[in-house]
Structure formats: structure tokens, C-alpha cells
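[agent] plan:
  1. take the single chain provided in the ticket
  2. run structure prediction with default settings
  3. attach C-alpha cells to the ticket
  4. add a short note for the reviewer (M.T.)
[agent] executing step 1
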Amino acid sequence: MAQHAQVLRRIVAARGRVKPGALVLGVQGLAAVRNLPRLLRMLVRGKINPARTLLGLKTAAAAAARRILG
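[agent] step 2 finished; step 3 output follows
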């Protein structure tokens, strides 16, 4: 399976929903930090929340997603 799909599945199973910030970090690693203009645009548009991404907060749907995705 492609790395993007694996990371997406792992994030949804762990947190119950897709977190764009975690997805970018999972796929690109620390190389994502080098693209500062893109990160700023995502932050301004509300696509990412660095605090939630780093804390790894779960939603109520996390248990169901984990059960479905195994």
C-alpha cells in the first residue's frame, strides 16, 4: 500500500477522523516544515491546528474507526 494511504488509515484508526496536519507530517516528515508558505496558508485557512496535531487528541469516533479499520 502507498505511504499516503497507510498514514491516512493509521490516523483515522487512532483519532477517529482525518487530521490534515498529522497527514502532512506522516507522509512528508520534517521535510514539510521546509515549505513554510504552504504551512502558513494551511494555518490561516484553519486546515491545521498545531496543538491538536502534536497532542494527538482523539474524537468520540476513534473507537469505532479502530474497530472497523482493524
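[agent] step 4 note for reviewer: The first helix runs from residue 3 to 15.
[agent] ticket updated
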